[in-house]
Amino acid sequence: MLGKPGPFQIIDVEGDASCVNPSIAPRRRYDCNHYDTCLNIAAALNWDNFTCRGCCGEIDEALFWRARQASKKDVIAGTLCDIPSIKLHTCDEPEDRPRKIVNKE
Predict the structure, then answer these.
(1) How far apart are CA 47 and CA 11, in angstroms?
(2) Do the strands 4-6 and 8-9 form a parallel or antiparallel pair, or are they unpaired?
(3) pLDDT at residue 58 tops 80
């Protein structure tokens, strides 16, 4: 797997750093299955811009968690940003649960 999970925030670009007229356009992979989610993450975290450059096509779980928390705290972000719920690992079968250890002394 090449790259790291994204998206990546653009903080400064070469030349003009304004988000209205940047000198270098960010690389975006519009055909990525996670593009909409990454766009919502960037909006929830109030980023001016983001790029897919260097992304392996997966979402950074830490950013996902931060965006989820931000959308819960900010009413507008919660309304506008569609951050999927976080998947939790559960034990469905009783045999998957850890067994209670009993000392017999």
Answers:
(1) 9
(2) unpaired
(3) yes
* Pairwise CA distance, residues 75 & 35, whole Å: 23
Say if CB 23 and CB 16 are below 8 A apart.
Answer: yes
Which residues are 9's β-sheet partners?
A: 50
Q: Is 104 a residue whose pLDDT tops 60? A: no
* Whether the Cβ atoms of residue 34 and residue 72 lie closer than 8 Å to each other: no
Q: Would you list the domain boundaries of the chain?
A: 4-96
- Cβ neighbours, 10 Å, residue 81: 20
Write the single-letter amino acid at 70.
A
Cis upstream peptide for 7 (omega within 30°):
yes
Q: Is there a contact between 67 and 45 (Cβ–Cβ < 8 Å)?
A: yes
